[in-house]
Each structure stands twice: as structure tokens, then as C-alpha cells.
Design goal:
Length: 210
Amino acid sequence: MENFLVLVDIGNSRFHIFKNGEIIHSLKPLKLDGDVFYISVNEKREKEFLALNPKAINLAKFVKFDTSYKGLGIDRIMACKSVESGVVVDAGSAITIDVMDNFRHLGGIIMPGLRAFREAFAKISPKLDMEFTKIDLLTLPTSTKEAISYGSIGAVVRVIESLDDKKIYLTGGDGKFLQEYVGGEFIEDLVFRGMIKTIKEEYENSFAKR
């Protein structure tokens, strides 16, 4: 069944589509063929997607996940779903950092994404409206560009490093960038791996028991 799956992660800014082993990022919903499964954190965009794909199946109705966290987003659940133990970092519009231990979710943190940090500086002053640069977190900044980069990237890195000494798993648009500072493993399709696991272990089993 896995070879015929089309998976869709509906975010706040884009539709992320996993098809034939490739990931497509689209600003608009697409009409898709095959067995379509999706998750969504944006109700308005979900309605737009379902207007084109009315038979698509929402995996949030089937997923099982061991956590005491209240209101954990389905995207975070799926990113953590295939990680037995470790720190899971999803670096997108927001940065979420979650800790897993023996397939149990211990808790997590939400921070602004790197772009949100940069936009915040731009609102403070036009003089602070500049792209981040790569920095050495062991060296005190000696320019404004280095200073705002350190204040943003450094804040995220320090939080990640403070949570646990487990292996770090990164995903999301800025995941590869953050990997340069925190190490660990970047897995572009981490959310989709969690979706596939949910289909195999929960969705299919729900029908097998009938």
C-alpha cells in the first residue's frame, strides 16, 4: 500500500506533499490521485484542500500517541511518532522542540521560527532589517549583523542544548541550517514517516478489527 500513498501535511503557509518518494512544497492546494492521507494545522487551508480532494483521509482521527501534553499539534505528533528516544526539532514558521523517551512524549517547547526573529528585528528598526549570517557561538559578536544573528540563532540553539543529552533529530525548512550548530540528524521526511507509521499501525488496524 505504501507505494500508492500520497501524504499531505497542511501547514500555516504551505502544503507539503509526499509522493513517489519526493516532497513537494506548494503555496496552493493541488488535486491529487491515489490514496490520499493528510494532517492539518490550518482549518481554512484544510477546507481548500478538501474541496479538491474530498476523499482524503484525516489521520488525526486515528493516531495514538503517548503524551500528557495538552493541545499538542498533529504536526508535532507526527514528527515525534517514529522517534523512540531523542530531541525532535521541527524548524519551520515556528520552531518546536520535543523530547521523546521510549516512544513516550515528555513535553516540548515552541519558539518563533528564524524568519519570525528576523522580521521582529525589522519592526524594531530599519537598521536591524538584515539577513542572518553564520556565526561562531563561542565568539562575542563584533558587528550588528553578527549580533542579531547570535541573538536569534543562539537563543534557539541554547534551548535545544539545554533540554536533554539524547540524539537530536531535525526537520523543517531551517532544520538543515540548525544542524550546523547542534549536530544530530536531519530527516526531511520525518513528519511523513510518522504518518506512514500511523497508517500501518493505527489506520489499517482499525479496519482489521471490524
